[in-house]
Design a protein that fits this description.
The chain is of the alpha+beta class. The chain has a single domain (2-126), classed as 60s Ribosomal Protein L30, Chain: A, CATH 3.30.1330. The chain is 23% helix and 31% strand. The protein is built from two helices and six strands. The chain has helices at residues 49-66, 87-97, and strands spanning 2-6, 21-25, 32-38, 74-81, 104-109, 119-126. The strands form two sheets. It has a four-stranded mixed beta sheet with strand order 3-6-4-5, with helices on one face. It starts with a strand and ends with a strand. GO terms for molecular function: deaminase activity. Belongs to the RutC family. It holds the Pfam family Ribonuc_L-PSP. This is 2-iminobutanoate/2-iminopropanoate deaminase.
Length: 127
C-alpha cells in the first residue's frame, strides 16, 4: 500500500490529530479492513472519557494486530461522542496513537451510544 497525506490551503486545516484527506493506492480490495465501532464495554464505571477513549483505542489496536496491521495502516476514523465538550480530552488520548500522518476523520455528537458509553470509534485500515 502506498499512502499519501493530502493537504490544501483551500480547505480548513486540521484542528486535531487527523488529516484533511488520505490517498491510498490499493492493489486489491482484500487489503482493506473495516473495523466496527469499538466501545469500552468492559470498563466500569463509565464516565472517565479519557479512560474510555484509551480502552477503545486499545480494542482497535488488538483488532488491527489480529489482522497483521497497526495504527499506521489506518486511513479513516469515525468518532461518535455523547458530549462534544469532551472533544479535547478525546483528542488528547486519540492523538497518542497517531503521532505522524494521522488518518482522515470525523467526530459527531450523538444522543446515545450502545451500553450508554460516552465514545465509540470505528476505523478503516489498508494493508
Amino acid at each position: 500500500m502506498s499512502k499519501q497525506i493530502v493537504y490544501t490551503e483551500q480547505a480548513p486545516a486540521a484542528i486535531g490529530p487527523y488529516s484533511q484527506a488520505v490517498k491510498v493506492n490499493v492493489a486489491s480490495p482484500s487489503n482493506m479492513l473495516f473495523v466496527s465501532g469499538q466501545i469500552a464495554l468492559d470498563l466500569a464505571p463509565l464516565g472517565d472519557i479519557q479512560a474510555e477513549t484509551q480502552k477503545v483505542m486499545e480494542n482497535i489496536g488488538a483488532i488491527l494486530k489480529a489482522a497483521n496491521l497497526d495504527y499506521t495502516n489506518v486511513v479513516k476514523a469515525s468518532i461518535f461522542v455523547k458530549d462534544m465538550n469532551n472533544f479535547a480530552l478525546i483528542n488528547e488520548v486519540y492523538g497518542r496513537f497517531f503521532t505522524s500522518e494521522p488518518p482522515a476523520r470525523e467526530t459527531v455528537e450523538v444522543a446515545r451510544l450502545p451500553k450508554d458509553v460516552n465514545v465509540e470509534i470505528s476505523v478503516i485500515a489498508i494493508q
